[in-house]
Write a structure and sequence with these properties.
single chain; about 90 residues; alpha+beta; five-stranded antiparallel beta sheet; 2 helices; 5 strands; about 20% helix; about 30% strand; globular
Length: about 90
């Protein structure tokens, strides 16, 4: 597996409904990659992920590599692009 490099976002799954969530401003979970807080440091992202770990709300917290294209944040890996766009309509 390739080594993860910044920038990254923190991603998880909603425990109650299974939706993909991203850590946004003020340690709040948001539903879109565009609203996710982008970390330029892996250490800061890991620390934020540890603080946001709420087993009653989310599972599977991980860091996701992203890139910036214009003003848009996009996932670098196709798996995360699929998760960000959803495999279908909810």
């Amino acid at each position: 597996m390739a080594r993860l490099e910044a920038p990254v976002v923190v991603s998880a799954n909603c425990l109650l409904v299974g939706h993909v969530l991203y850590l946004g401003e003020n340690q709040r979970w948001v539903e879109t990659l565009a609203s996710a807080y982008r970390f330029d440091s892996l250490e800061a992202a890991n620390a934020a992920a540890g603080r946001a770990n709420d087993p009653a709300q989310v599972i599977g917290i991980e860091l996701v590599g992203v890139s910036v294209q214009g003003a848009e944040t996009v996932a670098r890996h196709y798996r995360e692009a699929i998760r960000a766009n959803g495999p279908g309509e909810y």
